[in-house]
Design brief:
single chain; alpha+beta; five-stranded antiparallel β-sheet; 5 strands
C-alpha cells in the first residue's frame, strides 16, 4: 500500500492539473466568446430562414459576460418583407451550455422601443 505522503502528493498534482485545465478553458472561452456568439447567431439565422422563412438582421450585437447578449436594431421580417419583430434595443439572457453548442436558449428578454406583430406567431408553430 502506498504511503499517505505519496497519495497526498498525487492528489495534489491531480487537483492542480484540473484547476490549470479549467483556467485555460476559461481563458480560451473568454478570448473566443465573440466568435462563439457569431457562430450561434449565424446558426439561429439559418434555422429561422430554413424552418420559418424569416430573415433576422441586427444593427449590432455583443456578448456581455457569458450569458447576456445586448442587441441594437434587431429586425426580423417574413419572406414577403413584412415586419415580424423590430426591437430598437434588447437584452437577452441566454443559457451558457447550449450557446457553446451553437444553440440559443433564452431565459429572459428585456426589450424597448419595438414592435412584435402577433399575427405572425402562427409561423412559429410549424
Amino acid at each position: 500500500m502506498p504511503e499517505p505522503r505519496k497519495i497526498k502528493k498525487i492528489l495534489r498534482r491531480i487537483l492542480f492539473s484540473l484547476l490549470g485545465l479549467f483556467l485555460v478553458l476559461f481563458i480560451l472561452a473568454f478570448l473566443f466568446k465573440g466568435w462563439l456568439l457569431d457562430y450561434a447567431v449565424s446558426k439561429a439565422r439559418t434555422k429561422l430562414k430554413d424552418k420559418y422563412h424569416l430573415d433576422l438582421t441586427f444593427k449590432s450585437y455583443s456578448l456581455h459576460g457569458f450569458t447576456e447578449v445586448n442587441t441594437e436594431g434587431l429586425f426580423c421580417k417574413t419572406e414577403n418583407n413584412d415586419t415580424f419583430v423590430f426591437l430598437n434595443t434588447a437584452k437577452l439572457k441566454v443559457h451558457l451550455f447550449p450557446l457553446i453548442a451553437g444553440n440559443i436558449h433564452l431565459s429572459e428578454v428585456f426589450a424597448s422601443d419595438g414592435i412584435i406583430k402577433l399575427q405572425y406567431l402562427k409561423l412559429l408553430k410549424k
